[in-house]
Amino acid sequence: MDRDRHLELVRILTRHCLEIACPEKLADFTEDFAAFAVTAAPCRVDEGGIVFAPPPAPPPPPSPSGLDTTLVAGMFFNVLVEAEKLPARPPERVAFIRKEAKNYLVTRLAGQISLSQFFRLLNLIEQSVQRYFEHLEGGWLARPSAVPTQVAPVDSEERIQGEALRQALAQITLLPKGRRKITHETLWEFFRDTRSDWFRLLDFEERFRINKKTAWAYLNLLHKAGILEHNKEKANKVRYILAAPFRRSGSPPPNGPSSRQQPPSNG
Fold first, then answer.
1. What does the pLDDT look like over 18-53, one tens digit per residue?
2. What is the C-alpha to C-alpha distance for residues 19 and 90, in angstroms, rounded to an integer?
3. pLDDT for residue 225
4. Cα–Cα distance, 88 to 92 (Å, whole number)
5. Distance (Å, whole) CA 130 – CA 109
6. How many CB atoms neighbour CB 214 within 10 A?
7. Where are the alpha helices (DSSP H) in the chain?
8. Is the entire prediction scored with pTM above 0.85?
């Protein structure tokens, strides 16, 4: 683990939280985070060599906003350490950090910021962590003589009308089957991850780990509600896409791929 790079990501993630949840603390952010960084990650010797141990969490000070720079930074530091130990690739590590950050923040920010602000914060966290792990993976895989190509990161949420979609999904009554796996939030996350591209019934099945009948019932419900459109094909040629009101400009056309043109998520 690169300690400096690790701490820089923790600084970015902590700042995201304060900017959205309690911007009044930004005036002291530089000083507070510097104090945290001095005590963060003391070295210890382990069987695998020298590693950085997460600092013990200090007792929570009184905070009317529910967030404290040191505590938030400590949370991200610990979660990032755990994520880097996972025998997984970047997507799984990113999902782990998003989940842990959400669990930590949800009770501390309840009633203090809007739902849209909360999910905007989670998306900022996810984007920053995604870039971090992609950079690390690129460093592992690139040859020493290779010249890295600069690719501008694409914000998945920019491909959809996120808030409009969230409000539309909130009006849907979820089906009894699959309710533990399918919520308004997980549906929103799925459509965000499709990036306004075509997807298959199988993609929906695999994402939520449900059977074909339940997946079809949900897609049919969303289609009738005007949230989805499909390409009017039959059987395994059927593809779905977010309806036009929920796609930003530049997304695939609403009439669907022709029988001679396969959508991006073919298979």
1. 888 888 888 888 888 888 888 775 444 344 443 444
2. 26
3. 94
4. 6
5. 24
6. 18
7. 3-21, 29-39, 69-85, 90-108, 115-141, 162-170, 184-194, 201-208, 212-224
8. no
